[in-house]
Design a protein that fits this description.
240 residues; alpha/beta; Undecaprenyl pyrophosphate synthetase; 7 helices; 42% helix; globular
Length: 240
């Protein structure tokens, strides 16, 4: 199969704009977060339909703890509710749930629900859904560097000098391929501390819609554009 018609193996999405969408509706920010759950379903269904194998969703950043406490509490409660409600569908559709980030800092009920869903879906192979929770790209890189330093101190560093493969083995995403494409909603043109190392050669798509407005059609449009891009990885067109 030629490069131009390949389906991306891994899609990452920054789900942005819930609060601003809710404000346009004259509603509280929590209304936007509630309606964003349906957009998550659309993304998952679209990825399964197209044969995408990995989908990473930026659900809660390490900086999001700085938001008003009532909004953070609502998001943590919504996480528990969504996991419990969606686990039967994940099981039915062969979807494996994973996470990246320091989930040990989540509230106990959120942490417990996440672990239970991950365990229940561990043997599914149709699609791996990865939730980035209490995740920050800079923190991830720093903790990977510190892990390598500890390995060196303990005599467990397998080889030196450190290369990409060894460094990637210490990242939260060690078990997953790097994203082929990144989608961000809400008209913002930045990656907001998301997968800083892993997005080095990803194709970026910035959409002028808010996350609750996201549908499978938006996903399919991005995939079609992805298929028409030439991914050279530093080479010339003639070398591809």
């Amino acid at each position: 199969m030629s490069q131009s018609i390949q389906i991306p193996n891994h899609i990452a999405i920054i789900m942005d704009g819930n609060g601003r969408w809710a404000k346009k509706q004259g509603q509280d920010r929590t209304f936007g977060h509630q309606n964003g759950v349906e957009a998550v379903r659309e993304a998952i269904k679209g990825c399964r339909e197209k044969g995408v194998k990995f989908l990473t969703l930026y659900a809660f950043s390490s900086e999001n703890w700085n938001r008003p406490k009532d909004e953070v509490d609502f998001l943590m409660g919504l996480l528990v509710e969504a996991i419990k409600n969606e686990t039967p569908e994940l099981l039915k559709n062969g979807i494996k749930l994973e996470s990246i980030g320091d989930i040990s800092q989540l509230p106990n009920e959120s942490y417990k629900s996440l672990l239970e869903a991950k365990e229940a879906t561990a043997h599914n192979t149709e699609l791996t859904l990865i939730l980035a929770l209490n995740y920050g790209g800079q923190n991830e890189i720093i903790q990977a560097a510190n892990a390598l330093i500890e390995d060196s101190k303990n005599g467990n560093l397998p080889y030196f000098p450190i290369d990409n493969k060894l460094f990637e083995s210490k990242l939260y995403t060690a078990a997953f391929p790097n994203p082929d494409m990144l989608i961000r909603t809400s008209m913002e043109l930045r990656i907001s501390n998301f997968l800083l190392f892993q997005l080095a050669y990803s194709e970026f798509f910035f959409l002028d819609i808010f996350w609750p407005e996201f549908t499978r059609k938006h996903l399919f449009d991005c995939i079609e554009k992805f298929q028409n891009r030439e991914r050279r990885y530093g080479k010339t067109s003639e070398q591809i």
